[in-house]
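Format notes (please read before filing issues)

Several people have asked whether sequences and structure tokens are stored in separate files. They are not. Every record keeps both together, in the order shown below: the sequence lines, then the token lines. Line labels are part of the format and must not be stripped during preprocessing.
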Amino acid sequence: MGNSIAVIYGSVRSERQGIRVARFLLDALRERGDTGVMVDPVDYPLPLLDRMYKEYERGTAPAIMERLAEIFRSVDGFLIVSGEYNHGIPPALKNMLDYFMNEFFWRPAGLVTYSNGRFGGVRAAMQLRATLPEQGMITIPSLLPFGNVGTAFDENGTPKDAYIPTSTKAFLEEFTWYVEALRDRRAKGVPYE
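Then the structure lines:
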């Protein structure tokens, strides 16, 4: 039995290239025997944050928030797929993440970044490393950055560069270790919810 992983993608731009990375990760998870759930802000269009999910009385949050909360509570970990916008993370990703907190507690996040340049979005990863632990996630030590994303993957998410499957395999093995370790520990109880 595999793990259940939410692949949270962050861009809503019309010509978005990073969706290729998210598709590739979903395929890689399936090949490992895991279940990947795509969380795309195009499919879950949230307005700019006014009230967090936890600020609603039980059962009164908008349906879109309830669906996202259900996904986040049900998975074992998160792969955050982020582009780099002006040395930061995409606003749609930040907005989506900011709606939730308790639903992320005690679960690992693997940071997968991309850009059209050669640095692969690593500056966005640094901002995510500061934000995600504040929301209760544990970011794993390794990053999985993809430079030149427009040419590194085809439209379906098939990698064109030979290093991609190898580096992804190593990254996912580390991520899985954290997923399983934290799931086992959560089963024994957590300090607070």
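For reference, the curators noted about this record: The chain has six helices and five strands. The longest helix spans residues 163-187.
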